[in-house]
Amino acid sequence: MIRVLLAEDQAMVRGALAALLRLENDIEVIADVADGEAAWREIQRNAPDILLTDIEMPGLTGLELAQRIQRHELPIKVVIVTTFARAGFLRRALDAGVQGYLLKDAPAEQLGDALRQVQRGGRAIDPQLALEAWSEGDPLSDRERQVLRLAGDGLGAGEIATKLGLSHGTVRNYLSEAIGKLGVGNRIEAYRLARQKGWL
């Protein structure tokens, strides 16, 4: 039996995925949760075989969960199901040790097959997206990405500094580096371009 933890913030999508997986004889949904922090608590409590997660969620994102699992060297495989058909997201997911990356508009029957493939030690990744992922690299560092994401949320440099425990000048340097790397005029343009590319 493949024990799956489902993390998805949209209730209707979460319910549909759980119902779909419950039709499979060899897959058990041990819990379904609406945010990344709840998912992390369930991971520690129940140690699923596979975490099936969206990318964008409140608290911790799916990518941050994957990074945390990788950092703690937990024997849990991660499969992402998302609407983001962007090479930048896939590239970051692969760097975080994700074994599966499926799009929400893929045929429903692919989900169970993908989970079995991942459980056997394989990968389940959209082939076209995989090709695109290696054609364009992400120029941002993790810290630049973090600072840019908060700037995109409307926080000023001082607020970002407080939130991340950095100095005001350090935050300004990170923003300046990100703007320079992306070849745009300001932090909002940098945020928009990075979002569009799937780097945030």
Please identify the top-level CATH class of the largest domain: Alpha Beta
The CATH topology name of the largest domain reads: Rossmann fold
> Hey, roughly how much beta strand do the residues contain?
5-15%
* Known CATH architecture of the largest domain: 3-Layer(aba) Sandwich
CATH superfamily of the largest domain: Response regulator
Measured as a percent range, the helix fraction is 40-55%
The global form is: globular
Number of strands: 6
Query: Major beta sheet, specifics?
Result: 6 strands, parallel
| Total individual domains | 2
What structural class do the secondary elements suggest?
alpha/beta
Gap from first CA to last CA: 35 Å
Mean pLDDT level: 90
H/E series, N to C? Answer: EHEHEHEHEHEHHHHH
Strand order of the largest sheet: 2-1-3-4-5-6
Question: Rg to the nearest angstrom?
Answer: 18 Å
Uncertain runs: none
Q: Please report the number of helical segments.
A: 10
Modified residues (4-aspartylphosphate): 54
Protein name: Two component transcriptional regulator, LuxR family
Domain HTH luxR-type: 133-198
InterPro entries: CheY-like_superfamily, Sig_transdc_resp-reg_C-effctor, Sig_transdc_resp-reg_receiver, Tscrpt_reg_LuxR_C, WalR-like, WH-like_DNA-bd_sf
